Amino acid sequence: MSVSLTQAQVAAALSQWLPPGAVLTNPEDLRPFETDGLTAYRQLPWMVLLPQTEAQVQSILKYCCEHHIPVVARGSGTGLSGGALPHAQGVLLSMARFMGILDIDPLARTARVQPGVRNLAISEAVAPMGLYYAPDPSSQIACSIGGNVAENSGGVHCLKYGLTLHNVLKVRAVTMAGELIELGAQALDGPGYDLLALITGSEGLLAVITEVTVKLLPKPQRAQAILAAFDDIEKAGHAVAQIIAQGIIPAGLEMMDGPATRAAEAFVHASYPLEAEAVLICESDGTPEEVSDEMGRMKAILEASGAIEIRYSQDEAERLKFWAGRKAAFPAVGRLSPDYYCIDGTIPRRFLAPVLKRIYEMSREFGLEVANVFHAGDGNLHPLILFDAAKEGEFERTEAFAGKILELCVEVGGTITGEHGVGVEKINQMCVQFSPEELEVFRAVKAAFDPQGLLNPGKAIPTLHRCAEWGGMHVHHNQLPHPELPRF
Amino acid sequence: MNAIFQSLQDQIRSAHALQLPLRIGGGGSKHFWVRPQGSQVLDMRLYTGVVDYQPSELVLTVRAGTSLSDIEHLLDQQGQMLGFEPPHFGPDATIGGTLACGLSGPRRASVGSARDFVLGVRILDGLGRDLSFGGRVIKNVAGFDVSRLMVGAWGTLGALMEVSLKVLPKPPFETTLEWAMTELEALESMNQWAGQPLPLSATSYQNGRLRVRLSGAEVAVRAAMCHLGGEVIPEGPAWWLQVREQRAAGFSAQRPLWRLSVRSNAPPLGFSGAVLTEWGGSLRWIASDHAPAQLQRAAQEAGGHALLFRGGDPFRPLGHPLDPVLMNINKNIKQVFDPNNILNQGLGV
What we know:
By secondary structure, chain A is an alpha+beta fold.
């Protein structure tokens, strides 16, 4: 960063391209931007910019590039890994004013929108045409589509409908040098290397997204859910595997363990069976014929897998009631404890039961309670660790516990993040999942877009120095240093 | 297989050190379109076999030299399939070549492309580095998505060694319907139906006939048949195989075959020599002697791009020109993985 420029000089220079009130420098104005959804990390930015046009974004980035000023882009700030955590000596580029839905083409089933548009607002805008935007992260009422692309967000319907990556056709973005690029096309593929795939999930490290063209899907005519209770996690895990093995791709396949079920029940009274050690919610959607067929097959599998109770949603109200507990699981767990820490790892589904058992063991070792919710269909696990930040050392112990869970995910062939991103939160665990050479490739890929490393520095990709200091162990091709030792 | 891996790695390392070009060789089934240069070959046909296949995970990990037919046979035994329905273009097609070429077949518009089904890769890059990206799970956002970057890169960023793919259950029931229509009516119908909750799995338009494949639970397919009308044609499976393999009439024309990837509802492009339209209107095959720039301009105006697929020089495949800023980034990416430009010279940027 250029040491010769003061905050006032930079603010004055940037003000020439921005409308009045779009450059914030007073600490009280900066305060709302000091954290994102991962509130354990806070940092006041040097200044906040609120551009409204692509040309303004280009001017800002060009200026910051010339003066070596770091830039962190931010959407709605709902991310859970600290990806939008500000830089103390950098500008925070808020994309919140890019609120326009620019074009809807109902026949081609696409919508061209600005990055600050909320995920749910897209589905709401196209609902009269019988269409919707499929990825539905739990924060969908608030999170922005630009942030969704940056994080490659998922949701509860990923197994059937894919991630953000599978539902975006084209992205316009501005590089750190201020140059405009278009990745992807209105067609199903584009020329050159697949940079659209690369920018999706790049956590704001490659370019600033200024426009997104998404694919829209026809709204299913009908959706129905089954609630199934099990007295044993293993039986529930087996039921999940059987559903998939029998050729069914449910629209949603969610699991909660006993503690999460009881917390959710106490909170929203969804009539979940309190004696259950695991509850599965299986949803089917499509035409009425498809749904009836699939529901019948799923019920048979759940019965054969030893479910102690099976309930069908009889109407839309009951279906939403089944989901209410699952969707409220986080706040419900939040009522049990002053603080909780949400983890986001993915594992191959068949390791579900052993991984959960190991998590319970670790819970006892660390002396911290844990409740588990799980996108069982795609192997994405969200253990919630309960802790009290006011107690000396408890947050540190929680972070250590969380780190161990993520390492366990890698050990069984999974990943340290299924949908929340690496950000600042999981940067150490990147040293476990990737070799020094692979991390070097990530850094070089970043440099291919941003040679000075000014976009969202310090996030997502650790330096080798950081890995060495942290002392993480990289498990190469699933070959553990002592393969003869049992790991559960 | 470890010894073979090692020898392939040694071959790349020495080619890198000596700055000698190396061409990555698979089954050669796509050489009519893309053919790398170089006297030395990295023979991927040696590196074959299934690394891991768990039907209940819907995930398959295979070595890149494994033949597409072997993979399809294996999946078929478990009632599963490659969702993107890749063309083979010859009996020796490998999964590595298929992904390097980024080829998808008739089901693409409904379920996704080759790239969409890739979960992870292990590659040897142009420095001979053994690198793994992505993984064997469906949801994974750790690190940049380098695995999907490899799809369609023609092996210019590295030799694919192992790939993990999401697979799909085979639909229990399929049928094909046909209508007589003009091109304009067919484009309108394909787009409208794709916006309705119907179990469409493929569409084609050729010589005044629109054909639609429906796949799914039998009750759902039958309900859709009632809704759509049209005439059931018994030769459906054979037809979609001909479309996939480009053995349908018109594909063997003497004129150059162009692939125009456009917005699905773009109106008819107005070129003579239309061979076939598929993917709900998004993919239009045209056999034409028109100047490349003319076809490329038309595709671009229709929201996409054009490339020469058959009848060109496979050592210098004619793609769509890239914008200078993007070209620069493409070149930088190539530098990351193959700084000495030894892999598949003549292809890519």
